[in-house]
Amino acid sequence: MRLIRIATASINATVGAVRSNVDRAIAACEAAARDGATLVALPEQAIGGYAPEDLVQWRAFVEAQWGGLLRLAAATEACGVLVAVGVTVAIDARLYNCAALLHRGQIVGLVPKEKLPTYSVFYEARTFACGTPKMRETVRGVPMGDLVFETDFGILALEVCEDVWSPDGPMRRRCYAGAELVINLSASPFRVGITDTRREMLATRASDNQCTVVYANLVGANDGLIFDGGGLVAQNGRVMLDAPRFREGVWAATIDLDRTRRLRTENTTWRTDRDTFVATSPCAEVVKLTSPSPGSAALTYPVPPNKSFFLPREVATPSPRARFCEDILSALALGIGDYYEKTGAFETIGVALSGGRDSLLCLWIARRYLDQRLAERTPEERDAQARKTLRAFFMPSRFSSAKTRAAAIAAAAELGAPLEIVPIDDAFDREVAESSKMLQPGEALTALARQNIQARLRAARMWTWANSARGLFLQTSNMSEKSVGYTTIGGDMEGALSVIANLPKTVVNYLLDYLLETTRSAAIAMTLEMPASAELAEGMEDEKDLMPFPVLDACFALYAGEKMSLPEVKLVLRAMFAEYGPDNTDAWASKFGRLFTSSIYKWVQTPITLHVGNLDLDRERALQLPVVQRSEW
User: Fold this and answer.
1) CB count in 10 Å sphere of residue 514
2) Number of structural domains, the chain?
3) Terminal CA-to-CA distance of the chain, rounded, Å?
4) What pLDDT, on a 0 to 100 scale, did the predictor assign at position 120?
């Protein structure tokens, strides 16, 4: 047996917080050492934080990371554990996103990322240079390039995040160079459904390359990106460790590297492919470590928990519905919490409750952040913190119903948020009168302008509160309404952080249904009994103004996600929603196309938005569309 214990650490790094990030990394390494780890994998850019974006253009920031790397390396002197960590490295005018191997006080080597994602929320090729096969450099006396590392327990390779997502990444040639253990350092953002995809992909890479893959992922949120952690160890296709997500911590698994060598010996196809490859292609260079690893005397063979090598483990798994909802709620709560804490600008969190669905869900998520962060505290202590941190406001007009007022009061009471009720009717009348003075003869305030005045009054009051109470003003609009401009610039589009602007309305409703089932909340029940309405005019209902939300969300998914033309969208809608008839679905598709194109100027002005899906309505991060365009094509 060649037993080693592999630790994967999820740490919550903040961009630019080099000193604090290294402190967290050292604490993780010390915890791994106490657990008997042979090596510990830390996430991508764990020293500088991810995503650094153009901050890496400041050379002092890059230099500070090298100093942090030296401090972390010094901390490995006593424990003897090998440490893999992500860091930015500069060579002349080039910047590299690297994995560094540290051992016994030394920086042993640096391996740059080869696959730089420049799609979806990623822009790495803007600032970073790519590593390449056969790359050989020296940085301050440290070898850097296409390397593998020979230790006293076996040969290991390093790579960074996207390198493992490509089947044509560096893993194959490094395994053909002898690497049995591949450590992937990641800052992989959460997306709905990513967990199963990631797990299957890593197991597949471990099987294809007949190796053990170690995956360490960042946890926490920076700006709109949310990282869910969840380290994995997969040995030759078999998952040996699947660490908890949305939590900082260190988790470890013991593996027998002889199993990897035995399976390579047995697999004739792998051996034949290797011989063919090395005969014609370059392999990585081997760097030999001279210092000993902690050793394996205290390790025991990894016996299955059910003490059977043949029978399946009985593991309780949540339903797909529960997994879907809990993942989104946990991700958004983490996004709010880290934005609130890491910026250092806020003392309170405020939500303008309308008595409707979107603002109710946002307040629930804000309370969930507090409950997650204070999970070790008593319910009474969590309630006390909610009263200290959360603020809710209900600003009714003459169009606000008694039912929405009751729902807002119930929501604030259930979630422990102090509620202030501040009517806007007097201010509305004054603003109508004053705004009318700006018009020329023959002009009059439109019905739409009267609606928008109400939304803007509420937003202005929220900003004034935020200025006075150091408040994080949460914006509460959803993606469906945002996509067609059913929002008010200076009104419900206002806020410091947009919580659910990348959630379709059908998902908002689904989450509220789930919360009602699991919590029996009276406030949610009261809210769901009413049709969705902005209540800015008499008898107003959102779906009457727009279209049924399932149809609207289908239009958005087909047009913006699948990049279909409007005629193609109409064909799909006819089949998908036959109960409405082709005249209605065709009209709705045409309406969507018109509103979507003419509303881009609105949604590009929204605040930072939390990302939870592959299809996001965010010009800066995901869907980059020109504001000025025509749909004549």
Assistant:
1) 18
2) 3
3) 66
4) 85
Give the Cα separation of 366 and 346 in Å (integer).
14
CA distance 363 to 511: 13
Q: Helix or strand or coil: residue 148? A: strand
d(CA 243, CA 125): 30
Beta carbons within 8 Å of 333's beta carbon, 6+ residues apart: 365, 366, 368, 369, 372
| Separation in Å, CA 387 to CA 122, 261, 352, 361 | 38, 58, 16, 18
551 in the same domain as 538: no
Let me know if residue 293 belongs to a domain: no
Cα radius of gyration (the chain)? 27
Whether residue 358 is contained in a domain is answered as: yes
What does the pLDDT read at residue 558? 97
| 109 and 245 share one domain | yes
Write down the pLDDT at residue 364.
Answer: 98
Closest CA to 145 of 135, 130, 155, 153: 135
**Domain of 160?**
3-288
The whole-angstrom separation of Cα 536 and Cα 545 is 12
Asked whether the beta carbons of 340 and 349 are under 8 A apart, the reply is yes
Q: What is the pLDDT of residue 574?
A: 98
Distance CA 229, CA 190 (A): 9
Residues 226, 340, single domain; the answer is no
Q: What angle do CA 485, 487, 489 make, to 5 degrees?
A: 100
- Please answer whether residues 35 and 6 qualify as being in contact, where contact means their C-beta atoms are separated by less than 8 angstroms: no
Instruction: Please give the Cα distance from 402 to 421 (Å, whole number).
Output: 13
What CATH number is attached to the domain comprising 75? 3.60.110.10
Residue 426 inside a domain? The answer is yes
In whole angstroms, give the CA distance from residue 600 to residue 276.
53
* Same domain, yes or no: 553 and 538: no
Is 531 part of any domain? Answer: yes
Name the phi and psi angles at 234, rounded to 5.
-125, 120
What 3-state class would DSSP assign to 628?
A: coil
> Could you tell me which of 187, 242, 224 has the C-alpha nearest to residue 42?
187
For residue 222, what pLDDT is reported? 94
Question: With b meaning 16 or more CB within 10 Å and e meaning fewer, what string describes 293-302?
Answer: bbebeebeeb
CATH of the domain at 380: 3.40.50.620
Q: What is the DSSP string of 52-110?
A: -GGGGGSHHHHHHHHHHHHHHHHHHHHH--EEEEEEEEEETTEEEEEEEEEETTEEEEE
Do 136 and 237 fall into the same domain?
Answer: yes
pLDDT at 548: 98
Closest CA to 144 of 152, 135, 153: 135
Same domain as 559, residue 512: no
Q: Are residues 381 and 269 in the same domain?
A: no
Q: Do 230 and 365 share a domain, yes or no?
A: no
- Whole-angstrom CA distances from 476 to 301, 397, 609 are 52, 19, 10
In single-letter form, the type of residue at position 116 comes to L
Find all residues with CB under 8 Å of 390, minimum gap 6, and list them: 348, 349, 350, 351, 363, 366, 367, 370, 415, 416, 417, 418
pLDDT below 50 — which residues of the chain?
Answer: none
Q: What is the DSSP letter of 579?
A: G
Task: Give the Cα separation of 141 and 82 in Å (integer).
Answer: 19
pTM of the model: 0.95
Residues 6 or more apart whose Cβ sits within 8 Å of residue 303 = none
